[in-house]
Amino acid sequence: MIKIGFLGCLVLQDEMLYLIENDPSVKKVTLIKNGEEELISEKLDELGIPYELKFFEQLDSSDNNGSTDSSDLDSNSDSGSDSGSDSDSDIEIIIYLLKLGLHAYPKTLKEVVYEEVGKFSKHVNGILLFYGLCGNVLGKVDLELSTKECPVRILRESNNEVVDDCVGAVLNGRENYLKLLKSFNGVGTFIFFPMNSVTAGTLFESDMKKQRFSEEEIYKMNKFMFKECGYKYVGNLDTGLNYTKDVDSSIKRFADRYDFEVIPLEGGNQDLIDYNYKHIKSAIKESLA
After folding, report:
1. What is the pLDDT of residues 23-36, one digit of tens each?
2. What is the pTM of this model?
3. Is the separation of the CB atoms in 92 and 29 below 8 Å?
4. What single string gives the DSSP state of each residue in 138-191?
């Protein structure tokens, strides 16, 4: 059985679920138990997708030795997550989610991602990294860590540029991202898609909580920062995925807290996610040939 590792930020877990749900080649799902898997496990339960829950130390490395038949990937290697195709191939997806708070420290994020890719590569046939440049520290991670035994791919656009961040990933790249930003006419606007809407509190408050600021102090500092930076809107970006619950209420709660107006945004899709999934499957096929 081909083992593909999904390693990434928990904000892109819905995109991982999308690939799993729509690829008939996926016969097994394993979640790494590290404290970040609770929400995605609930979603898998709701979808009726069975999975195994394992600590990282329980992973088996016996299949990452190049002995798997590359024909296992033939039927779907050209179509990404084409749900309409028949397939006799067998793929196990192993999901390893990392903490959202790492983004606050780009150097630490790079160190952790590089270390975890190195460890993870001993247990899978290939790794798809659900990250973008993220502070410009991950632009070469796949080039530096890919091996013949375990190819690694970060989210890249069709021109081979690494996507800027998670928002760029769900907008299918920089061109669409810049077009959307320009549409705000210089007015500060947060772009929330389903998963980062429910993690906004963590994103904007976790570091200050570690520094023992009170809730009131955190609120006042964020309020001041947002005002000085000219933020007035929170954009609710529709990605077409509905795995995350209560998105609208989560966005409204954040907007009300800081006196922002919520505006609907369109254009979210999974094209870039499909594109990169196709490429990591192709790279694994070549590595096993």
Report:
1. 999 999 999 999 99
2. 0.89
3. yes
4. STTHHHHH--SSS-EEE-B-TTSPBPSSHHHHHTTSHHHHHHHHHTTTT-EEEE
